[in-house]
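Input for the complex:
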Amino acid sequence: MNPGSMTEIWVYLSTQPLLWLTLTLAAYLVAIALHRKSGGHPAVNPVLISVAILVCLLMATGTPYQRYFDGAQFVHFLLGPTTVALAVPLHAQFKRLLAMGGPILIALVVGSLVAGLSAYAIGALLGASAPTVASLAPKSVTTPIAMGIAERLGGLASLTAVFVILTGIFGAIFADGLLRRLGVKDEASVGFALGLAAHGIGTARAFQLSEQTGAFAALAMGLNGLFTAITLPWLLPLLAPLLK
Amino acid sequence: MIAAFALLLAFQLAGEALRVALHLPVPGPVIGMALLLVWLVMRRGPDEPLRHTAGNLLQNLSLMFVPAGTGVMLHIGRLTDEAWPIAVALVASTVLGLAATGLTLHLLTRNRSSGENQ
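Predicted:
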């Protein structure tokens, strides 16, 4: 095969959704293999590695993100039904969740306010621009909720999505080590903290630890999304004058 | 498997419909998750195909974040311009959020279980 026809094949394939869909799955399989090989080490995070591989590929080939997403959207779409599927492990832990209702609600209020307000306050005090600060505040919440909140606060939805993902990856990598050092080792508390502070990516990490940890993470993710969506839009205007 | 997948999509659809109809601030899939949980409590648990399909999807939850995560490349400019405040805010608030949540739940439930033991 001469180089000319190779280029033709590449030009054709690179515009087709199939190529980037396949490469998304391939990058994920490489990341999962590395994760297994490391013995499930949290620093070898599958989302981080997959994203790193794909960003390198896209930049090396000069492919715009939109063209990549035309293929990858089929994977992105599965996020919806997979979120619904979290009800199954939640149901398996339902009795424990009900028995812990009071402590769970208190941990929700404390954790949600600390995570959201500290991101906003630190960003503002260190001199980040207004749209960046508004996009930082909802970063512990699952992506679609966070994007909606950021828009209401004057942030940028797509920048918020990036902060959400970075938060999730950071939380997934460091949560269990940090909590262990603080003496928090029970599955319920570790899972609830992961889901609250690091949403879906933290929940994915929690499921790597155990199904019970994952169920508490899923619950925290859902509750924090709801609580933040209701409280943050009226809390931040109260806090904003204090930071100026 | 198709029936279980259709069921998940149906609950997501119901969640989306409810969100639009009632102007709820929560996304459709999260409402769908709550609806499915209610349904599972009423039915006393998932059937085998649903348990199997949900397990398979959740095992690969990380994969579903990859397309959105790759969007980080669109913001590399802003991320490098404001790298310092962004990095400190993200890292510190996530550490604080994790610690506050984990410690609160741990301390509250530890007291409770030691109370039950007495």
